[in-house]
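User: Show me a protein chain along with its predicted structure.
Assistant: Here is one chain, sequence first, then structure tokens.
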Amino acid sequence: MTEIFIQYLILYFVVIDPIGTVPLFIVVTKGLKNNDKIRVAFEGVIIATLVLLFFAIFGSYLLKYLGISFNAFTIAGGIILFIISLQMLFDIRTERRKKSINEKRESISIFPIAIPLLAGPAAITSVILAVSSAGENYSSFIINLISLTVVMIICLLVFRIFISFQKYINEKIINIFSRVIGIILAALSIQYILDGIKSFF
């Protein structure tokens, strides 16, 4: 069980990418007081968590309703994750996220913090894939949800830490870490594709 928990934990940490989201969080909350930044971080993480939990619980039912096989979704999800990993490696993802940021500050906890920075396509796809792969194993399902919740708590803690120490943040270190995460995500995405092809045949 511990191995499964760590596996899910790493997967969600990679695709949600709290470290890589920090520079963008700083950009969209620029000009706000620290208390307001903390409030935005808390609200954004809560909303993103609820969105991801929704897809974790009902995602498989949506696939069945739409008539999409698990193998097809696994391969498609792997391809999407691979594209995102390339974007992370070449820093395209960060630039794309910056362009998607709305200049209005009224609801930044919902958009873009919760969606799509935290609960983006990669995270939603991974949640559905991970839960679907567990099948009817309720222990794995519960561990999956716990892992997701723990990662979201880590997101909140990361935001909180960086709010306190944002004057000392070295963006080069964040970029290096983001690229390492991109490599791991690329490997995970290829594994998804191979699993989907293997199951199909």
